């Protein structure tokens, strides 16, 4: 700001000097032309009379004839240049302002050189006034700028200090803390909104981790307790029952290991660590294989299982993983639907629908069932890890497919669409 103001003032100063110099040069040039023309039109006596009658306020004129000096001066200064070249020189007067500074030069006429000059000490006064005014203007502007800058910086620092204090609270574990957002909608508010969104996501992830931990503890506590009791009772069982008891314990242990294996597999799929065996897949063929594989399970529960295929479509993907995801959805429909229920698979282009008329899923749980180890209360009566739908969504996401759960009135309708 200081540099800009100084440059502006210096530019104005230069413009003032140049303008004054141009005015002086123009005035002297006009007077020079006047007296040169006068010398051509009048005689020497009339020329001297005109010089004596010249108004010194307009221009100071001096001419030395063969006898004496005529005009405003008693002698011509030495080394005066020929106009348009000029030089400053001082004169003394008897008035209150005894010293005057003049700028002028010699004009060559038919009657010899004539000194033509004009006062320029008033220009120095004007420049001095300009410099004083510019100094106080610059000082006032800089003072105002510093004051406003101080106030503005204090406001910024106040918000930064507040953000820093709130960040320390978040670092201390108070994840519900949020940065304040004002009505100004400035850059700090944009930063606060973005930071608050990050905190919302972080808090949701932490809640999800806590939920997963609680679900792991809840779902594994029972089988691990059975394992502990079974191991304690092994020594008390007769030899003929020992093999069966050992087999039951191994089955419980395998269920626990299956849960952890499923979690690791889900993580690898979600993070893209598991490579896909990409190949062309016919959606009609995979739905036909799915129907043939699950038909036996539906017949065991006396359920009606139907298939409707229309307008085949081919996608690129891993056939094994995709079949695993679709079979999980069909298996859930068979498992949670009562005996005599109807399960229907329909395929239209790149869309697959799996519908049943079972108990369905409440609206508030339709998104939650895709979280890890989430098992709704009715499903806890069935054996499972609570990772099936999480695995389904991860596999479909890797295949750039979307899944949506909606009501079938009654039952559940699963809509899958491939891009």
TrEMBL record:
GO terms for cellular component: plasma membrane. Residues 215-419 form the Histidine kinase domain. The keyword Lyase does not apply. The chain crosses the membrane at residues 133-152. The keyword Transferase applies. Residues 154-207 form the HAMP domain. It is an enzyme of class 2 (transferase). This is histidine kinase. The lineage of its organism: Bacteria, Pseudomonadati, Pseudomonadota, Gammaproteobacteria, Alteromonadales.
């Amino acid at each position: 700001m200081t540099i800009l103001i100084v440059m502006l003032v210096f530019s104005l100063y230069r413009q003032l000097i140049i303008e004054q110099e141009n005015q002086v040069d123009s005035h002297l040039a006009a007077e020079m032309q006047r007296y040169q023309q006068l010398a051509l039109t009048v005689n020497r006596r009339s020329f001297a009379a005109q010089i004596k009658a010249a108004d010194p306020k307009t221009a100071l004129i001096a001419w030395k004839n063969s006898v004496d000096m005529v005009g405003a001066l008693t002698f011509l200064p030495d080394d005066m240049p020929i106009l348009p070249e000029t030089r400053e020189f001082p004169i003394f007067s008897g008035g209150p302002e005894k010293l005057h500074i003049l700028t002028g030069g010699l004009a060559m006429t038919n009657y010899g050189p004539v000194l033509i000059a004009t006062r320029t000490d008033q220009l120095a006064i004007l420049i001095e006034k300009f410099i004083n005014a510019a100094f106080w203007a610059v000082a006032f502007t800089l003072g105002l700028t510093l004051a406003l800058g101080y106030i503005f910086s204090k406001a910024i620092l106040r918000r930064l200090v507040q953000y820093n204090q709130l960040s320390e609270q978040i670092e201390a574990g108070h994840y519900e803390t949020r940065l304040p957002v004002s009505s100004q909608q400035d850059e700090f508010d944009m930063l606060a909104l973005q930071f608050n969104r990050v905190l919302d996501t972080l808090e949701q992830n932490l809640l999800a981790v806590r939920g997963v931990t609680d679900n792991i503890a809840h779902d594994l506590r029972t089988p691990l307790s059975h394992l502990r009791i079974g191991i304690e009772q092994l020594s008390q069982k007769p030899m003929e029952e020992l093999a069966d008891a050992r087999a039951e314990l191994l089955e419980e242990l395998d269920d626990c290991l299956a849960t952890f294996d499923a979690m690791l597999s889900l993580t690898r799929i979600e993070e893209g660590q598991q490579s896909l065996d990409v190949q062309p897949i016919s959606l009609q063929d995979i739905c036909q294989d799915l129907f043939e594989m699950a038909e036996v399970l539906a017949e065991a529960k006396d359920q009606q299982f139907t298939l409707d295929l229309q307008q085949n479509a081919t996608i690129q993907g891993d056939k094994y993983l995709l079949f695993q995801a679709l079979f999980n959805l069909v298996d859930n429909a068979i498992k949670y639907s009562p005996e005599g229920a109807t399960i229907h698979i329909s395929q239209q282009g790149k869309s697959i629908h799996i519908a049943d008329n079972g108990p369905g899923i409440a609206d508030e749980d339709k998104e939650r069932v895709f979280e890890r180890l989430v098992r709704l209360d009715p499903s806890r009566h069935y054996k499972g890890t609570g990772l099936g739908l999480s695995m389904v969504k991860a596999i479909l996401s890797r295949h750039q497919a979307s899944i949506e759960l909606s009501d079938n009135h009654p039952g559940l309708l699963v809509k899958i669409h491939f891009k």
